[in-house]
Amino acid sequence: MSEADHRLSQYRARVFAERDNLLDAFPDAREQQHRVLADLLDFNAGTEFGRAHDFGRIRTMDEFRKAVPVADYAALSPWIERMANGDRNVLTADDPAVYFTSSGSTGAHKKIPVTPRFMKTTFFPFYYAAWAPLAEHFPDVLTAPDRVLNLKHDPLSAPPTTASGHAHVGASQVDFGTKFGEPLSAEPGTAAPWATLPVPVAADDHLEKTYLRLRLAVEHDVRCVIGINPAMVAALPYQLTQWWPRILEEVHDGTLGGVRHRSPNPARAAELSRLAEYAGTVRPSLVWPNMRVIFCWTTGLASLYLPRLREQFGAGVTLLPAPVAASEGPVGVALDRHRTAGSLVVTASAYEFVDADLDLGPDVATLDQHELEPGRDYHVVFSHVGGLYRYAVGDVVHVVDRVGGVPRVEYAGRATRSDFAGERLRDVQVIRALAAASGGTGLEVGNAACRVTDPAGGTRRYDFAVATRSPWHPTEVDRFAALLDAGLASRSEGYRSARDTGALGAPRVLPVDTDAFARDWQETVSRGVRPTQVKDRLFRQDPQLWRQLTGEEGK
Q1: How confident is the model at residue 104, as a pLDDT?
Q2: DSSP 3-state assignment of 100?
């Protein structure tokens, strides 16, 4: 057996073992949650936070609730900043090895402390298990490093650091093998020829790095695309079209970013040119005819465009859902081929939940995992050994069903609301209304965004930018808007009341072309934002962002 085959065998064994461990924990989920709580209390009892909140005396979740208020990042940030500046034993008994970055609601980058103990007990078990459906049902994509195009992999040779000298980077930019002694932890695709770019490129020139990786990948048998963030996957067909002449020229000449890279490949360039000319367009399925699977989040706004997007990657391509997780920690992980949902990772954190229609606050009443009802939406609050205690991560999940007695959840959007007239609209309410309007009219929605406008002499209303695949007749636009209005009213009592009292007018629907959101994504990345952080955003009140998307002036 070759070294590569031996490593793959070890990797598969680890992935399946971690999945089996999670499944084995399900029948005893309540006790597992108690063990997680007891472990984090015991391990961190001597920290400043632990002493301040009397961790040494807490034995039950009810006692924990009384001692520790529900907190968001802003509430914990003073403690975290002290750690980032070099203070020890503040939130955690072991020192952070790195800080994950995550975009905050204000656009500022959070510093998420990542400790060795957190990685061992919370992160790695769920992380390995997340790849089990891919390894089990699509084993061929893992047999060669160039069969996976991992869009989120972006290593940095000189990462930014905190004041204490610890790297402050995205999770996809950390070498887990070196940093945490987990040599099997490298994600699929991270050993591909394009994983570490062989030509010079500025660290913040993310658009050029995206091009260079795509240029290299067109000469290989890619069978799987990993995006996690689905907006990155949605941008790929547009990028192929925009960069096609440059790609063909560089493949023909053997250059990469204008630099000699390998022998010229005129045969491949001619083949790609013929395929595109015959089809009349450029699609991923033409470039990579053996494509089998896309791994990314499949809910939220992506649920509107992924069915059609999948067709561009090939007939029969499977969508596998990425975990329901944030930089701060995991929530759910798909252990089978369910298209949207993953089982609660009961061994990772002590979880609490709050009805999504309620406001979060320090003393809000919470539910345990066994109290959740299928078909309902909930705020997520979790506590883990890495130093986040009763942490409101800002995500809402929808409970799909239960497997082995454990809730299976899907991501249902951010917890933030759009509220200008008491409507209190959440992401998922709007997305469900858009889906219902699409189904009621037969009109496809490629993506959508909205804002509240206050027309001169008029009533506030919601404007919706909706990407369309073909022109909509004015009567179709009106019908879609009426169904959207009704759908919002049926899903939000606040919206219905605002419409009934005249505080909000009827929504306006603005069809935009099918590439509008891809251009918007491309423009944002060109300004230096990492692709992993350019996500689908439903509510776009910022005039500049609205103008970038639609060409209309913001108000």
Answers
A1: 45
A2: strand
